[in-house]
Amino acid sequence: MKKGRILITGSNGLLGQAVVSIITRESDFELVLSSVEEKSNININQEYIQLDITSKEKVKKTVADAAPDIIVNCAAYTDVDGCETERELSWRLNVDAVKHLIIAARPAGAKIVHFSTDYVFDGKNGPYDETAIPNPISFYGRTKLAAENALLSSGIKNAIIRTMVLYGAGSKVKPNFATWLVNKLSAGERINIVDDQIGNSTIVDDLAYGTLKLIEAEKEGIYNIAGRDIESRLDFTFKLCDVFGYKKELIKTIKTRDLNQPAPRPLNSGLITLKAQSELGFEPMGTVESLQLLKYQLGY
Ligand SMILES: NC(=O)c1ccc[n+]([C@@H]2O[C@H](COP(=O)([O-])OP(=O)(O)OC[C@H]3O[C@@H](n4cnc5c(N)ncnc54)[C@H](OP(=O)(O)O)[C@@H]3O)[C@@H](O)[C@H]2O)c1
Known about the structure:
Blueprint: E1 5-9, H1 14-26, E2 30-35, E3 47-50, H2 56-66, E4 70-73, H3 80-85, H4 87-108, E5 111-117, H5 139-152, E6 158-163, E7 166-167, H6 177-186, E8 191-194, E9 198-199, E10 202-203, H7 204-216, E11 221-224, E12 231-232, H8 233-244, E13 251-254, H9 274-280, H10 287-298
Parallel strand pairs: 1-2, 1-4, 2-3, 4-5, 5-6, 6-11, 7-10, 8-13
Antiparallel strand pairs: 9-12
This protein binds NADP nicotinamide-adenine-dinucleotide phosphate.
Residues 9-10, 12-16, 35-37, 51-54, 74-76, 78, 93, 115, 117, 163-166, 173-174 line the site of NADP nicotinamide-adenine-dinucleotide phosphate.
């Protein structure tokens, strides 16, 4: 017998694809996939519904029709710099749409599993555990914190998973930090990498695995799920060079302020994952092990 029904939103994204993959392979849940595009990017035999979660009426109808026990919200506006200029659009997707999901989940009695970020912190004194006080310094961070607060005060069953520097392989997904590095370095291009942004990068397979553990353990509240090693972007890049066999001479070290990005970044960040390790049995991979997996997935 199936354990229950899960509706995934944003199933075409990097995380959405990984969550669908692990639930299909390693659990007994029935799945309904949905994303904003007309067609699913995932080549599996699962029901797919086109759903723009910024449409309150469509969300209500889809949730009522699908009657899920759990909604896993993998849809988001994830362009951190874009959020500074596209404030209305990013708020609609990252905050208002989460409120639409809450309204739709209530009569269905469904639980929402949602994803958040270390960008809810200012990066002055990381790494952070789940009880640390948020203080976002970018508009993206503010949208993600507002969604957390909407869920925490909603009165419906919910869990919030905070993660950071998410990377991995997927079908037709946007480049992420690791795949951008691979694209540039494999072409022999020189790149500038900051040495003053500290945190634990996360391979998407690990996050999806932690998410399934959280669902199976029926946990609620905030959980940090991220990679094992807390290090600078530069040290991550050097490890990637070692694993993929790229020349470190292509890398020039710079500071975050040299990039002049529209959104400020939390510098001294990182997420402490001890709660997920002890309560969910989540075992984060180290960077080298994760990059070896990525190398295999990319066919290098
Ligand atoms: N990426 C990171 O480094 C990072 C770090 C910390 C936390 N997170 C969080 O992790 C979660 C997943 O991120 P991700 O990296 O998997 O992002 P992603 O690859 O951009 O996936 C998001 C998906 O949502 C879809 N989407 C966009 N607008 C939509 C709408 N109106 N209705 C339904 N779906 C829509 C996107 O489609 P299009 O591609 O067509 O827009 C995309 O397929 C997000 O909550 C994010 O904030 C990410």
